Amino acid sequence: MKVVPVYQAEGMVLCHDVTEIIPGKRKGKAFRKGHVIRRDDIPRLLTIGKENIYVWEVNEQTLHENDAALRFAQAIAGPGLSLAEASEGKVEITASIRGLLKINGEALERINDIEQVAAATLHSNQIVDAGKKVAGCKIIPLVIGNEKLKQIEQIGIDCYPVVEVKPLQACKVGVVTTGSEVYHGRITDCFGPVLTDKFERLGSSVLRQVFVPDDISMISKAIHRLLAEGAEMIVTTGGMSVDPDDVTPSGIRAAGGQIVAYGAPTLPGAMFMLAYFGTVPVLGLPGCVMYHKSTIFDLVVPRLLAGEVLSRKDIIRLGHGGLCLVCEECRYPECGFGKGS
Ligand SMILES: Nc1nc2c(c(=O)[nH]1)N[C@H]1C(S)=C(S)[C@@H](COP(=O)(O)OP(=O)(O)OC[C@H]3O[C@@H](n4cnc5c(N)ncnc54)[C@H](O)[C@@H]3O)O[C@H]1N2
Ligand code: MOO
Description:
This protein is α+β, with helices and mostly antiparallel strands. The chain has 11 helices and 20 strands. It folds into 3 domains: 2-56, Molybdopterin biosynthesis moea protein, domain 2 (Alpha-Beta Complex), CATH 3.90.105; 62-165, Aldehyde Oxidoreductase, domain 3 (Alpha-Beta Complex); 172-319, 3-Layer(aba) Sandwich (Molybdenum Cofactor Biosythetic Enzyme, Chain A), CATH 3.40.980. Its EC number is 2.10.1.1.
């Protein structure tokens, strides 16, 4: 900060608000702190009585907060995002498409470890609609050293993209509904409509729903039939728990898939299974997916539709934030469920 004669202040940044008082008419801010002084501001500043003012100097080594915030946002934003105009040292980042929000948490931490800058985001791995605000980049002082922006830009290159929205692929989904009580018509199937609705909301569709009793070989055959019909994802429903008739995990194993995990640290959704048949994910969905509004389904399926291949480690990580409070009115993803992963 330094004092300069006002007629030398063009291009420099005001360090404080400048108040103008016109008796009987108005009292208010004539210029805001952070304003970059233009040549035509000078006569007005002189009229207000400012022959000398405190300024920050912007030169090759320093940047005004708004210019810096824009470079900051450009450095962290990847595909599927758009940037708002810089204001008060801040640029907001919004989704430009509907899709899966991905945040590189490690890169974000490295950036926020740089002094005088702050980036805040929504949590990773949630579906966001186009227009949703997902992140904000803020410069703390009015003027910041260029080297700090260069550090951020290097992290942005090394970890590209720090923030992105991945589009969801439209998938043809095969459904294998197990349960002798459903197969023999003792009860009406309720899983199919829930899944049709959930997949349609995600831009995918149910190719076919096959009904089988609690029989390992029939479950296995149904999986192969749907694979042969071109299913790009298969979900089996029910029979995932511990009763003698809960044989769906055995059916998936018998079909010969590569098992990623049986059991997931999410409640509801603990009795979940994920397997792969080549590139086709096969999911074992427990009864809770039919009953509860938000479950393991909502944490895993969007990521699969965004093209991610999930590992056992990805499933294990769901534990932090994997406890759903089963609120009367479900507000997911505007809650803690799935937040830690
Ligand atoms: N002793 C234990 N009991 C339970 C455990 C456990 O670990 N130990 N796990 C619980 C969890 S977690 C879940 S989730 C549920 C359900 O798990 P399943 O996937 O095995 O579900 P099912 O036994 O097949 O069915 C439960 C219930 O839902 C009805 N159902 C199933 N499919 C359909 C369908 N397509 N349409 C309509 N209704 C359906 C079924 O008739 C049963 O009433 O287990 C807990 N228990
Ligand atoms: O899978 Mo149950 O899967 O936790 O409610």
